Amino acid sequence: MSDPQIEIRIWMKENLEALGHGSKGRLAAALGVRPDAITRMLNTESEGKEVREIKAHELGAIARFFGKEPPGGDPTAIRFVPIAGLAGAGPDTEVHYATGDGNFGEIEAPKDAASTAEALEVRGNSMYGIAGDGYIIFYEDKEAPRPEHMGHMCVCFLEDDRVLVKIPHPGREPGLFNLESINAPMMLDVPVRYFAVVTDIKTRYAAQKFARRNPHHPIEDVTTSGRRVAS
């Protein structure tokens, strides 16, 4: 029977050897286990020695001890996505983006979020019924309009450079879309460049708990036209 953790055991051995004498004891102390438990973690079945399973929370602690990501990634790592703009800060649920290189901080990504995921923070009550003030909207996979986008809440990147949060429907001609929202009239036959599907929404309570603001990239200004400003 093959050992599914063989690569992790080899990775541990290499890093302990690089750290030198006493590193095994320090790792044991960091994990809160006896040094012989580390020895069994390092053993492989091919050596005919007793092997100990490396649990997920232990692997996360080992990764932090070495300061390196283990083979297959750290199962305990928390991934964050940027809060790229403010939704509903203007009429028609416009999205206002920070100028320069700034953003509004970051927030823990939903489980299984794509690498393209970003977030918007809702301001005001223009999206009431979908998301209230302080809620966080997650979206991903910004791409050209497809039939699969129709009827699903999306971040809509219009041809006139406005960005809105709406539910698209086919318009009267190809390339034109009717954009629906709960608290505003339907926008008819609007040319849209891209859609990005809204994949998750966090409440204000959850947003306050999981968001962290970004002091390293201060916001220079916020656009008031709903247009994304190139950095």
TrEMBL record:
Protein name: Phage repressor protein C with HTH and peptisase S24 domain
Species lineage: Bacteria, Pseudomonadati, Pseudomonadota, Alphaproteobacteria, Hyphomicrobiales
